[in-house]
């Protein structure tokens, strides 16, 4: 039996075991079951605190959302999406923060998440300037693996960026922040993936995606036509590979508007010395037409065409999560 994903009444699984005991399963949790510590994250509709379970001593990251803020800013849908997506991903063994339970009081909603002890990938990129090629390759491979699992469940993240990619105590990556995720619905599942994803009439044409922080990783189709496609996350993968190797994201400008313009015009350059295989892969990911991006036509759960790209040569896909990741220095 596996641990169950979050419900409003399920308590965190015990630290030592993935199987919650019966008493844990039926215990309703509240903020009183945790000692709240330092602030570890801040978004436009939530705040994340390090917290300790008073019963087990285990550390969690608890995302706290003020109800009045959610209602005032019409963010109820964000909360639901995040909970649904994290519940769907609960049994994927690697690559994602885990949602152990949710509860609420009069003023707030609480999400009890696994604590990614080593924080944001962005801090590491900024600290060392840029990653050595083997480091960039390893984290790109972990990210691609996680995207495969997520996309197999028809979840598109839509806001992948180095701030939303966290590192756990073993320096393995976990994707966080599913507030703007899209879970493709059953209608979209019924016909071929390509048509579904590309048929904008099925989607919310008028939807506006609001960005928290920078929009530097947003794909042209999200900016332009609000098309929902897994290939938007592949675009972000291209931006992140570029950034891990060069130190900066490909599309940079002083204002959001200018960044959008650069994205839509594909106005970016590679710095001198950018490795040829990495450049070739990034060029195949940063393609304006999402249906022509590398991986967009791959069938099944694996992005074979991306895995087989020379940039990933030497990656042992079956041992990715058992290995100690190469040291970031
Ligand atoms: N910041 C936001 N979510 C987090 C998490 N799950 N672990 C660590 N830091 C975070």
Structure commentary:
With 329 residues, the chain is an alpha+beta fold. It has twelve helices and ten strands. The protein has helices at residues 22-26, 67-72, 76-88, 121-128, 133-152, 186-190, 193-198, 220-224, 231-246, 256-265, 276-285, 304-307; strands at 34-42, 47-53, 59-66, 95-96, 99-104, 108-114, 155-156, 165-167, 173-175, 182-183. The strands form three sheets. Strands 1-2-3-6-5 form a five-stranded antiparallel sheet. A three-stranded mixed sheet has the order 4-9-8. The longest helix is centred in the middle third of the chain and has 20 residues, at 133-152. It is globular. The model is unreliable at 8-24, 189-196 and 198-206 (pLDDT under 50). The protein binds adenine. The site of adenine has 12 residues, from strand 1 and strand 6.
């Amino acid at each position: 039996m596996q641990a169950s994903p979050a419900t409003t009444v399920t308590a965190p699984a015990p630290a030592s075991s993935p199987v919650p005991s019966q008493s844990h399963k039926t215990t309703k949790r509240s903020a009183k079951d945790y000692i709240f510590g330092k602030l570890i994250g801040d978004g436009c509709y939530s705040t994340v605190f390090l917290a300790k379970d008073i019963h087990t001593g285990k550390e969690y990251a608890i995302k706290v959302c003020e109800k009045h803020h959610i209602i005032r800013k019409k963010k109820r849908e964000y909360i639901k999406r995040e909970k649904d997506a994290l519940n769907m991903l609960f049994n994927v063994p690697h690559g994602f923060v885990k949602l152990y339970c949710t509860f609420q009081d009069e003023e707030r909603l609480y999400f009890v998440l696994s604590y990614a002890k080593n924080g944001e990938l962005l801090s590491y990129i900024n600290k060392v300037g840029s990653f050595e090629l083997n480091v960039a390759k390893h984290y790109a491979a972990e990210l691609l693996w996680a995207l495969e699992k997520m996309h197999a469940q028809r979840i598109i993240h839509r806001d992948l960026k180095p701030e939303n990619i966290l590192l756990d105590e073993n320096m393995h990556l976990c994707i966080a922040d599913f507030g703007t995720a899209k879970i493709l619905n059953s209608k979209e599942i019924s016909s071929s993936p390509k048509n579904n994803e590309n048929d904008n009439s099925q989607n919310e044409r008028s939807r506006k995606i609001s960005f928290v922080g920078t929009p530097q990783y947003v794909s042209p189709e999200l900016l332009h036509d609000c098309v929902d496609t897994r290939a938007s996350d592949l675009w972000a993968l291209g931006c992140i590979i570029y950034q891990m190797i060069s130190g900066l994201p490909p599309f940079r400008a002083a204002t959001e508007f200018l960044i959008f313009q650069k994205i839509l015009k594909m106005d970016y350059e590679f710095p001198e010395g950018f490795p040829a295989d990495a450049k070739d892969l990034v060029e195949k990911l940063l393609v304006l037409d999402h249906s022509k991006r590398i991986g967009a036509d791959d069938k099944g759960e694996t992005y074979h065409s991306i895995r087989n790209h020379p940039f990933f040569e030497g990656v042992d896909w079956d041992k990715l999560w058992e290995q100690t990741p190469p040291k970031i220095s």
